[in-house]
Amino acid sequence: MSARRTVAPDMVGCCFLLYAGTLFFAVLRAPYVYREGAAVARDLAIFGGLFVLCTLIAAGLFQRRSLSWFPAILVSLAAIVAGAMAFHIPDTAQLPAGVLGATGIVLLWARRAEFAESAPSPPASAPAPDAAAAAIDAD
User: Fold this and answer.
1) The pTM is what?
2) C-alpha to C-alpha distance for 105 and 111, rounded to whole angstroms
3) Which of 84, 87, 105, 126 is the most buried (most CB within 10 A)?
4) Residue 61 near residue 16 (C-beta atoms within 8 A)
5) Coil, strand or helix: which one is 76?
6) What is the distance between the alpha carbons of residues 105 and 85, in angstroms, rounded to a whole number?
């Protein structure tokens, strides 16, 4: 029996797209902030890699890919840690990221059954293979 499709993973996927959007601005900002090429490359590698990771996780969550569930839990946990470590700094996005990370973990854990199937199930109107074989044997 397959789990009913809900909006919970889609909501978490949207949060990951928000993370990716904020990281995209960090990628765009790097060449203007630093004068040395090594510093620009470091920021592009870190923030660009996180941007790609968050985008891929969001795409996997939207498609209910089982490979995206565990990385989504890990990145959500990292968002909680980032929020906990910088909660005292005013005007930063760490606290909302921590709240969205906690919400993401709860929603993904509650709907983990939606990620259990990696292959699509056959349509409901198709007869089961055993029933078709039994009908042929009965003739």
Assistant:
1) 0.74
2) 10
3) 105
4) yes
5) helix
6) 18
Return the residue matching tokens 């760490």: 94
Spell out the residues 6+ positions from residue 77 whose beta carbon is closer than 8 angstroms to its own: 101, 105
Choose the weakest-confidence range: 32-36, 43-47, 108-112, 128-132: 128-132
For residues 121-134, b (16+ Cβ closer than 10 Å) or e, as one string? eeeeeeeeeeeeee
Tell me how far apart the alpha carbons of residues 47 and 41 are, in angstroms, rounded to a whole number.
Answer: 10
State the Cα angle at 111 between 105 and 113, rounded to 5°: 125
Burial readout 75-112 (b: 16 or more C-beta within 10 A, e: otherwise): bbeebbebbeeeeeeeeeebbebbebbebbbebbeebe
- The contacts of residue 102 (CB under 8 Å, 6+ apart) are 76, 80
The string of pLDDT tens digits covering residues 69-106 is 999 999 999 989 988 887 666 667 777 888 899 999 99
